[in-house]
Amino acid sequence: MLLYILFILGFVLLVKGADMLVSGASSIAKRFKISDMVVGLTIVSFGTSLPELIINIMSSVQGQSELAIGNVFGSNVANLLLIIGIAAIICPLPIKRNTILTEIPFSLIATLLVGFLANAVLIGDKTSLYISRIDGAVLLFFFVLFMAYIWNIAKTNKDEVIEDDVAPTMTMPKSVLYIVLGGTGLFLGGKWVVDGAVTIAQSFGLSESFIGLTIVAIGTSLPELVTSAMAAYRRNIDIAIGNVVGSNIFNLLWILGISALINPLPFNVVSNSDIVMMIFASTLLIIAIPIGKKNTIDRWNGILFIAIYIAYIVFLVQRG
Q1: CA 29, 34, 35: angle at the middle one, nearest 5?
Q2: Structure pTM?
Q3: CATH number for the domain including 148?
């Protein structure tokens, strides 16, 4: 009974936590003249990626590699198709030039890097596929490069941020408190929802890989979903997009890198189809942007993204 109560309470914490996180992050962005995109790519992405981090650390320690890898791959596909799709339906998403040329392609490159490292042993003598500790260190190295890039654009764009006539909505201590409470709510809410969903799913005899790619992936993506939806509703487009792109990069480079350092992750060749799906979703996003008016992801793009995601879930069910 307690499991179901925490499961429902988890959704409440996700919604409230996302609202507080976006409010606090936006206020800090205005106060320090930091662009919403930088905040979305860093503070918000870190906060919404906490459930994936916790799940993957626990999975790596317990040797559940399929759950760890499936969680990251499934979350990234959900971010690109389901979350951006829902956000675009709420409010069309105009994408800035820098995001089109740098952040989204970097996310695609991170996907290709993971795919290469996971399959690199195919060109050697070993027959088993895995993401080794060295591979994890390589992923973390590229994550450091990404953070250095974010630091650079934060300094470069600081003077270019247009100062609103409206003062920051909160004092600094209140903004920090909102971010801390919001991140805590997202973490606890995501954990309770995932724990409840996994327990319920296991009672029906579903596989670890399937649970990771669907229930756990969607569960740990709920913070990104609620945060981007709230940001789109509040017309904070840069936070809505930055949250998704940043979370995907965090998942692939930081979370998967840490997981591999803790314990090398055996890689099932069937997971290559999920890597292909991530590549397809990233490519679809890049193609959809110039098709829309003024580099905007329109509502019909959002509907298409959600339809493709539903088809992907059907494919996973048939794959078993």
Answers
A1: 95
A2: 0.83
A3: 1.20.1420.30
